[in-house]
């Protein structure tokens, strides 16, 4: 496919790795922020191609993974109501709540549906006027415009039986939180390309300056990730700490203003609890008061719920880049994609699930081979 | 989750509720995509699509420029380190 295949060229990838090797003189730790980037890195074995001085740690940018247990339990409580049709992206269905997951509830007869887009829920709501249709609105800034449009259109079209359970999260406060942690090892970031397609990258500039870290807004294909790594390593070696844009075919400094405008009409910034990380100030979106009739938390009056996390799971440390999946004693043993203990094993973009999918639980030593040759 | 795929807009129309939609081709698979956030997109443009929404237009000139820069680096790399050709894994981690 155009704009995909050319960014998977093995020969160019090897040249970029060569350039990184020539540039690097000492160890550096970089974090790729987005779960989609983690998936590509593990799928193509890019981390194993890099010189040993460059370590990639995996960031918190998997919304399925960071949705708090309280929010999952609220989703389960709403989905169990007989008057509800609960709609979600597919990968939320197997995220473990305190007792069950959405898939188990569905098998017990709850009306839970997987949708491709939140706009699909408006059709479902029109077709089922006697039901309350709820969409589980998770995601980063990339997904917020879609959810904002669904709410906006519901209001425009007078669809009153549609609401969203909002668990939106924002990238900049989370990377600031990682940098403030006493456990932090991260010295530079590969920034989230698709988040910045919407938001631009102006809000990363004060973070780069304040914490003296390079932030390179980076795409998702192998050549994007390697070029982003090269740009970050160059900055570190030269003692620079700037925001640079590797993903210029998509991202502009100001982002998509039309999308930002509707997001700001529908949502406002709020404190948000992240699974495995804890509460981060001003790190999420909630619906504005004017849209309260579409707020599922308000409509269903779900109270704070007592939650239980499995003790063995270290997903919080994995999400902060402090540990890697294979540092967990449960990884690939008690915890597998069929029986996940934590959310990082559920979503395909969770670091644990990506490591498992590409066989890293079977390896003592990393496999020094790239999957680029078979990428097409 | 933030997965987004480039597709070529084939046809633009408004749906029954006045929402700007585009029939978009993703390597042979054609789907309807919401173009409300990309008012300047025209037929023939490539857009980046996430959960049924075009996030933005793919800038072809910028895409070509980046790719050409990478290709140019390839030639530069060959001039600088011919030995890398013979053993691309030299000096790598375990």
CATH topology of the domain at 65-170 and 255-300 in chain A: Rossmann fold
Q: From the alpha carbons, calculate the radius of gyration of chain B and give it in angstroms.
A: 20 Å
Number of helices of chain A: 16
- Shape label of chain B: elongated
For the secondary structure, the number of strands of chain A is: 11
- Which structural class do you get from the secondary structure elements of chain B? alpha+beta
Structural class of chain A: alpha/beta
What does it look like?
The complex is a heterodimer of chains A (376) and B (94). Chain A is of the alpha/beta class and 376 residues long. Chain A has a domain at 65-170 and 255-300: HypD, alpha/beta domain 2 (Rossmann fold, 3-Layer(aba) Sandwich), CATH 3.40.50.11740. Chain A has 16 helices and eleven strands. Chain A has helices at residues 10-23, 35-43, 46-49, 63-66, 69-79, 102-107, 119-127, 144-156, 171-180, 193-199, 205-211, 222-238, 257-266, 296-300, 315-319, 351-357; strands at residues 28-34, 54-61, 84-88, 112-114, 132-139, 162-169, 188-192, 215-218, 243-245, 267-274, 278-287. In chain A, strands 4-3-5-6-11-10 form a six-stranded mixed β-sheet, sandwiched between helices. Chain A has a five-stranded parallel β-sheet with strand order 2-1-7-8-9. In chain A, helix 2 runs parallel beside helix 16 (351-357). Chain B has 94 residues and is an alpha+beta fold. Chain B contains two helices and five strands; from the N terminus they run E-E-E-E-E-H-H. Chain B has a five-stranded antiparallel β-sheet, with no helix packed on it. In chain B, a hairpin with a 5-residue loop joins strand 1 (5-14) and strand 2. Chain B starts with a strand and ends in an 8-residue tail after the last helix. Chains A and B meet through helix 1, helix 8, helix 10 and helix 13 of A and strand 1, strand 4, strand 5 and helix 1 of B.
């Amino acid at each position: 496919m155009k704009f995909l295949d050319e960014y998977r060229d093995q020969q160019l990838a090897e040249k970029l790795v060569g350039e990184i090797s020539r540039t690097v003189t000492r160890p550096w730790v970089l974090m790729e922020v987005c779960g989609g980037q983690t998936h590509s890195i593990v799928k193509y074995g890019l981390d194993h191609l890099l010189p040993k001085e460059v370590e990639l740690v995996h960031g918190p940018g998997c919304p399925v993974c960071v949705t708090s247990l309280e929010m999952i339990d609220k989703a389960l409580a709403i989905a169990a109501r007989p008057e509800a049709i609960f709609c979600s992206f597919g990968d939320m269905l197997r995220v473990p709540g305190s007792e069950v997951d959405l898939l188990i509830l569905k098998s017990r007869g709850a009306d839970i549906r997987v949708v491709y887009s939140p706009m699909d829920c408006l059709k479902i709501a029109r077709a089922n006027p006697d039901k309350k249709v709820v969409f589980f609105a998770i995601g980063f800034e990339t997904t917020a415009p879609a959810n904002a449009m669904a709410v906006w259109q519901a209001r425009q079209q007078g669809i009153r039986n549609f609401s969203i359970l909002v668990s939106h999260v924002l990238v900049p406060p989370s990377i600031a939180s990682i940098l403030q942690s006493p456990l932090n090892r991260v010295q530079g970031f590969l920034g989230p390309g698709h988040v910045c397609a919407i938001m631009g990258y102006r809000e990363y500039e004060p973070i780069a300056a304040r914490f003296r870290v390079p932030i390179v807004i980076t795409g998702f294909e192998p050549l994007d990730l390697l070029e982003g790594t090269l740009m970050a390593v160059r900055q570190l070696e030269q003692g620079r700490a700037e925001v640079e844009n590797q993903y210029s075919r998509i991202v502009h400094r100001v982002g998509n203003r039309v999308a930002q405008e509707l997001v700001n009409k529908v949502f406002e910034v709020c404190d948000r609890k992240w699974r495995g990380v804890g509460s981060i100030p001003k790190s999420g979106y909630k619906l504005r008061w004017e849209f309260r009739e579409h707020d599922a938390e308000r409509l269903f009056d779900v109270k704070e719920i007592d939650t239980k996390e499995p003790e063995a799971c270290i997903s919080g440390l994995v999400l902060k880049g402090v540990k890697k999946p294979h540092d967990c004693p449960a990884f690939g043993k008690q915890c597998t994609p069929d029986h996940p203990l934590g959310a990082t094993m559920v979503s395909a973009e969770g670091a644990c699930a990506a490591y498992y999918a590409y066989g890293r639980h079977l390896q003592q030593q990393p496999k020094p081979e790239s999957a680029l040759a078979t990428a097409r | 989750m933030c997965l987004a795929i480039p597709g070529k807009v084939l046809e633009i129309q408004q749906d029954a509720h006045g929402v700007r939609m585009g029939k978009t081709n993703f390597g042979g698979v054609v789907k309807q995509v919401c173009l409300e956030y990309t008012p300047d997109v025209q037929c023939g443009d490539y857009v980046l699509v996430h959960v049924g929404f075009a996030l933005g237009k793919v800038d072809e000139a910028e895409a070509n420029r980046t790719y050409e820069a990478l290709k140019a680096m390839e030639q530069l790399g060959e001039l600088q380190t011919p030995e890398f050709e013979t053993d691309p894994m030299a000096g790598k981690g375990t």
